[in-house]
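In response to reviewer comment 3 from the previous cycle, which asked for concrete evidence that the modeling workflow produces usable outputs, we include below a single protein chain processed end to end. The sequence was submitted unchanged, and the resulting structure tokens are shown without manual editing.
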Amino acid sequence: MGKFDKYEIDLKGMRESSAKYEFMLDNAFFAAIDVPEVQKGKVNVSLSVRKTSHGFNLNFHTEGVVIVPCDRCLDDMEQPVVSDDSFRVKFGPEYSEEGEDLVIVPEDKGTLNVAWFMYEFVALAIPMKHAHAPGQCNRDMNSRLHKYLRVSEDELGMDEMGDSSDFVQEEEEVEKPVDPRWNELKKILDNN
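The workflow returned the following structure tokens.
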């Protein structure tokens, strides 16, 4: 028995016109998928399969929490994910994905493993930017960031962290003269 056998949907053997499936994607699932974007989480997936005259419609509702690194302090944080996704399935001679909403399944096999599709839906539901709420980031990392970045204390969540006197303020950089060779190169570019 394979590690993703429980995510196998028997389309050919469907007796009713529709079926519902419930899956819990936990830490073991994400570890088995072995992709770096998501390593941990607890996500419920509701799958509705409806048989049509042309094939099958699969509708996924994904809702839960994944653990991802914070973009600011790199500590793990809980990121809520919610998505509704769907695609169509048809029988054909061999497996293929036609566009973004059609999957061809070999008719002689008649089953579709939805594990990878569910993982992709979860990964795509994660926002591009994920950061702790203001004041929740790792204080030590925030102080190190503040040394090298020119941002206001509000952006780093300093207003809720308390005293910011231990942060070092960098001095304004003095404008340095430009090497004359660069000016000559600019003239060449401007002539073209």
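The chain has two domains: 5-125, 133-170. We consider this sufficient to address the reviewer's concern, and the full set will be provided in the supplementary archive.
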